[in-house]
Amino acid sequence: MLKASPSAKARAEGPRRAVKGGDVTGDRPKDASDMSFEELLRLQSQVGSKAYKQLVAGNSAKTRSPRQPACVADKLRPLEMSAKVRVPFLRQVVPISKKVARDPRFDDLSGDYNPEVFDKTYQFLNDIRAKEKQLVKKQLKKHRSGEEREKLQQLLQRMEQQEMAQQERKQQQELRLALKQERRALAQQGHRPYFLKKSEQRQLALAEKFKELRRSKKLESFLSRKRRRNAGKDRRHLPLSTE
Q1: HSE toward the beta carbon, residue 110, CA cutoff 13 A
Q2: CA distances from 190 to 182, 185, 193, 195, 210 (A)
Q3: Which of 40, 115, 177, 242 has its CA 20 to 30 A from that of 186?
Q4: pLDDT-based confidence at 124, cuts 50/70/90?
Q5: How far, in Å, are 32, 47, 107, 122 from residue 104 at the CA level?
Q6: Residue 109 CA, distance from chain mean position
Q7: Which pLDDT tens digit goes with each residue over 61-111?
């Protein structure tokens, strides 16, 4: 078996000693990053490509700093806008708390609507409306003609319509209450409760309305208006005359 000569062995270990142990002439260790390009080429030709790559990889691993994030988030730094996305002309610079409107009619915090409880709670409004109606009538007597009289007449007509609608709603509530009491009495007697349909409830309400109109002697005027309204509806479905 052939043995390598001492001179060849020294030539092979010379560059390694220069990289690992430092420079021969000086005490300071010489790293691969401190060597010139000519010295690196000379080292590669002396130790070979494989050993040279191992030496360079080992030195770079020692000198490499621990991995840090590329960008450290800082709350105090200014907002950085991307150049790839077009910045809007109107943008929100300072966050503004949005005011949310709350409608008590459709909010669960206000509870469920009960017409009977509502009428009892705001029953005092009826007296206020009656006083306002009397005041409008007095003002109407003072203005014999003109635009102000027309406004007062429209206001009085609207108040009367609201009063009629309130009375009709009250009658429907009384009818529902009477039906509820009747069902409760039948249930106490052992009968099976029967719940009316909406169409049947409308028929009962219409019958009560006819009775009220007959008592007040306004049934004929109501029926005449109803006939004119139905005739106008039927006239719309008739074919147009081809004259």
Answers
A1: 9
A2: 13, 9, 9, 15, 34
A3: 115
A4: very high
A5: 79, 88, 5, 16
A6: 18
A7: 555 555 544 455 677 888 777 778 777 788 777 888 888 888 887 888 878
- Structure-block tokens of residue 117: 């409880």
**Global pTM value:** 0.45
With a cut of 70, say whether residue 7 has pLDDT above it: no
**One-letter amino acid of 202:** R
Band of the pLDDT at 241, cuts 50, 70, 90? low
**Tokens of residue 39, six digits:** 């010295």
Distances (CA, A) of 62 to 37, 58, 165, 174, 195: 20, 6, 92, 94, 89
Quick check: 24 pLDDT over 60?
no
State how far the Cα of 90 lies from the Cα of 92, in Å rounded to an integer: 7
- Measured from the Cβ of residue 155, the count of other Cβ atoms closer than 10 Å reads 15
Q: Supply the DSSP symbol for 138.
A: H
CA distances to 224, 231, 233, 234 from 238, rounded to whole Å, are 21, 11, 9, 7
pLDDT over threshold 80, residue 25: no
Report how far residue 22's alpha carbon sits from residue 13's, in angstroms, rounded to the nearest whole number. 12
Q: What is the DSSP letter of 193?
A: P
pLDDT at 132 over 90: yes
